[in-house]
């Protein structure tokens, strides 16, 4: 990869840490494809590290580098990123974008090659149910390492930016995803599935507990609706959870598995009576934005990330009974759902891939110019995982008389949260599972030497090989 002579000319930009392009898996891959091809159109050289794809050297102007990975849940990403970072040592780009804070142990390789790097921190990955105690601890350590070793951090939602500001006093670049705005009137592909426009409810998600697929399925069945629920997705690692979802369906839900035909998927989004969005631990979710851009009315799990994107155009649920009630409401007045979908499409206009690309382009120039630099890496407060319903709250902020918590102020008189009291930090809300008094953290211990922190991360990485005790998903 040829390097530019200055930050104002065309740049060489490496994108590391995803499955690569073409985008066939999730939000990171969609972002890499949409941003990468636009950067190419603007004259930049983009290399994307990929885990497969048939040996294609190029995709939409981006250069693909295929490298192997260990095909296990715990080590697939880490092993592939290790090889990608090593490749960059000998084929250095002007700047690198690393996706997923879990890849932080390999950032020193990029820094040793004098490649400025920004890390996309993703969501609160340590809250995903698929990780056992060692995996959760690994992710929390990697958050600290990413803050310490990245030149810049990327957040895709205000709630994520608030989290890193409050936990580490770290600045982030707020760079969301884009929403493809789809035209009305296309539905001819639905006949292949025996579906009609506005004649089904839709769910699109990986079948994982934090995406609440079982909750949506149970609620739809409980509603007794004659309008079918169509579920797109599967459980790549968690067959026990998929079995639980299928049991909850009682034969009344259509499971399509993965749908990789993008035209068909667009028509599924665009003609659904309701799109059900159960994601709870990520930031801005590309599937949600895609549904909005298709003009679907959206009912979403009630967390701050989803409210941040949907605002007043969404309706929200937290349990199967909420789902059942919202299904009945939509079936009783389909026209009101269609009108809400039109307003949702209007709201999606705020999420523009061209504007997102502007942000990544400027960040890359800032990295090359050396005008951004993170520091620190230690948490400002002890970890307090006060978690309920897939949300999080962290200690050390303001508690108002109404129970709201926000960073940067004084505690109320007494500084005590009672069990079950509603709390929020920025757009992230929760109810406390336990509610100790929020007191300032203890004095900081001396920061361990860098080599010790690298060894600590390596031990935790190897610990992911250990089997998790207990069931793979809640029973």
Walkthrough of the structure:
The protein has 475 residues and is α/β, with parallel strands linked by helices. It has three domains: 12-178 and 354-369, 3-Layer(aba) Sandwich (Rossmann fold), CATH 3.40.50; 188-351, Rossmann fold; 383-438, no CATH class. The chain is 36% helix and 16% strand. It has helices spanning 27-41, 76-90, 107-112, 133-149, 158-168, 213-223, 239-249, 262-270, 286-293, 304-310, 320-332, 334-348, 353-369, 450-463; strands at residues 12-16, 45-50, 58-59, 62-66, 95-99, 117-120, 152-155, 173-174, 201-204, 229-232, 253-257, 274-277, 298-301, 315-317, 386-388, 391-393, 398-399, 405-406, 422-425, 428-431. The strands form five sheets. Strands 3-4-2-1-5-6-7-8 form an eight-stranded mixed sheet, sandwiched between helices. It has a six-stranded parallel sheet with strand order 11-10-9-12-13-14, with helices on both faces. Helix 4 (133-149) runs antiparallel to helix 14 (450-463), helix 6 packs parallel to helix 7 and helix 9 crosses helix 12. The longest helix has 17 residues, at 133-149.
Spatial arrangement of strands, main beta sheet = 3-4-2-1-5-6-7-8
Query: What low-confidence regions span 5 or more consecutive residues with pLDDT below 50?
Result: 382-458, 460-475
Main sheet characteristics: 8 strands, mixed
Question: What name does CATH use for the topology of the largest domain?
Answer: Rossmann fold
Query: What is the number of helices?
Result: 14
Helical fraction: 25-40%
Q: Give the N-terminus to C-terminus distance in angstroms.
A: 50 Å
Write the CATH homologous superfamily of the largest domain. Glycogen Phosphorylase B
Structural class: alpha/beta
The name of the CATH architecture of the largest domain is 3-Layer(aba) Sandwich
The level 1 CATH classification of the largest domain is Alpha Beta
Q: Give the total of beta strands.
A: 20
What oligomerization state is this entry in?
Answer: single chain
**Tally of structural domains:** 3
- Taking all Cα atoms into account, the compactness measure Rg is 22 Å
Strand content: 15-25%
Overall pLDDT level: 82
Globular, elongated, flat, extended or rod-shaped: what is the shape?
Answer: globular
């Amino acid at each position: 990869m040829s390097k530019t002579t200055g930050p104002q000319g065309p740049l060489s930009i490496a994108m590391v840490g995803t499955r690569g392009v073409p985008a066939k898996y999730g939000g990171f891959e969609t972002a890499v494809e949409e941003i990468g091809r636009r950067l190419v159109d603007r004259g930049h050289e983009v290399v994307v590290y990929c885990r497969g794809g048939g040996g294609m050297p190029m995709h939409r102007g981006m250069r693909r580098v295929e490298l192997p990975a260990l095909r296990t849940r715990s080590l697939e990403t880490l092993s592939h990123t290790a090889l990608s970072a090593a490749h960059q040592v000998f084929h250095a780009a002007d700047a690198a974008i690393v996706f997923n804070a879990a890849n932080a142990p390999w950032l020193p390789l990029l820094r040793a090659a004098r490649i400025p790097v920004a890390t996309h921190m993703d969501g609160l990955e340590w809250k995903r149910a698929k990780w056992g105690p060692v995996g959760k601890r690994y992710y929390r350590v990697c958050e600290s390492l990413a803050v310490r070793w990245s030149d810049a951090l990327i957040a895709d939602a205000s709630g994520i930016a608030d989290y890193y500001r409050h936990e580490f006093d770290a600045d982030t670049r707020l760079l969301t995803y884009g929403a493809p705005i789809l035209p009305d009137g296309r539905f001819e592909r639905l006949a292949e599935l025996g579906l009609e426009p506005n004649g089904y409810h839709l769910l699109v998600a990986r079948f994982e507990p934090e995406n609440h697929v079982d909750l949506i399925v149970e609620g739809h069945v409980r509603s007794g609706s004659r309008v079918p629920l169509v579920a797109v997705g599967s459980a790549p690692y968690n067959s026990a959870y998929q079995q639980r979802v299928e049991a909850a369906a009682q034969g009344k839900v259509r499971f399509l598995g993965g749908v990789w035909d993008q035209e068909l998927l667009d028509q599924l989004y665009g003609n659904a009576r309701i799109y059900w969005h159960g994601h709870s631990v990520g930031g801005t979710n590309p599937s949600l934005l895609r549904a909005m851009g298709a003009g679907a009315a959206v009912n979403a799990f009630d967390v701050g990330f989803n409210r941040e994107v949907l605002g007043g155009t969404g309706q929200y649920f937290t349990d199967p009974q909420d789902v059942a009630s919202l299904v009945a409401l939509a079936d009783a007045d389909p026209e009101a759902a269609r009108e809400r979908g039109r307003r949702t499409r209007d709201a999606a206009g705020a999420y523009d891939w061209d504007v997102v690309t502007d942000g990544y382009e400027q960040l890359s120039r800032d990295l090359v110019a050396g005008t951004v630099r993170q520091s620190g890496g230690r948490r400002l407060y002890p970890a307090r995982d006060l978690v309920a319903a897939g949300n999080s709250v962290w200690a050390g902020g303001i508690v108002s008389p109404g129970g709201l918590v926000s960073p940067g102020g004084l505690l109320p008189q007494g500084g005590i949260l009672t069990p079950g009291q509603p709390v929020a930090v920025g757009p992230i809300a929760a109810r406390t599972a336990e509610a100790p008094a929020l007191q300032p953290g203890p004095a900081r211990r001396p920061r361990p030497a860098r080599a010790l922190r690298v060894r600590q991360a390596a031990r935790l990485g190897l610990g992911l090989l250990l089997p998790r005790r207990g069931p793979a998903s809640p029973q």
